[in-house]
Amino acid sequence: MKTTLPRQSNRGPRLPALPALLALSAALASGGACAAPGDIVAQVTHLAGVLTVKRPDGSTKFMNVKSQVMEGDVLNTGEEAFARLKFIDSSEMVLRPNSVLKISEFTFRQPDPKGDKIRIEMLKGGFRAVSGMVGKRNREAVSFSLPTATIGIRGTHLGALFCQNDCGGVPTPTGQTPDNGLHVDVAAGAVVVTPNQAPGLAPSATSPSPATVLNAGQFGYLPPPRNGVQPPLVLVPPAQAVQVRMPASISQNAPAGGATGKTSDPECVVQ
């Protein structure tokens, strides 16, 4: 069962649309791009703070502007760090501080839309994302997995923040710390939020919460499981909603370098 929430009034605060995306190097912009484990799927275009990556082979490195991201990588932003990624299909993500993200699967073949597949796991923290070519031509092939839900897209600019006693520094309209759980906002397009089965229960133990569609300008909150049951996603008025915001130095298309991190060494191995 899928629930579509009614559209909200435009009177509430609107999230600024992410500007046009930066062009990547010719290697990433190839029209016939595809990916296999260990292949390059993205590049760091903006960075403020510390970003590390754990490769599928177990090695760990510090990343900088122009560092390459591969399928299977696990990215980790440090305290007060923001990182912006540009993918080979022109999609883009910005990671919040103290976030952990895994590029679980990324397949993009220009002449073969049926082979598209993007699956990104947000293990901790929050992000903003703008869909690229895969999201435009094959939206069912794109998904974001979080600890309590999976988010599917419909040509989208979205934000997501997962709080588990670690969102004390996130600004809110009320000035209060965001509640634990998943906060989702949609700036353009729509998303489908499907709650996961509550942990520790057999699939037949209880009916799962329904999938919910959030449209542009809407905000949703998925509470954590209670007594083994996952509550459904609820619509949040804009004046009370948690908005996933990014600093101008990351969200704007400033030249790589300067305030966003300048280096002659794209990667350094962590000893």
From TrEMBL:
It comes from Pseudoduganella namucuonensis. This is FecR family protein. Residues 73-160 form the FecR protein domain. Keywords: Signal. Residues 1-35 form the signal peptide. InterPro entries: FecR (IPR006860). Residues 252-271 are annotated as: Disordered.
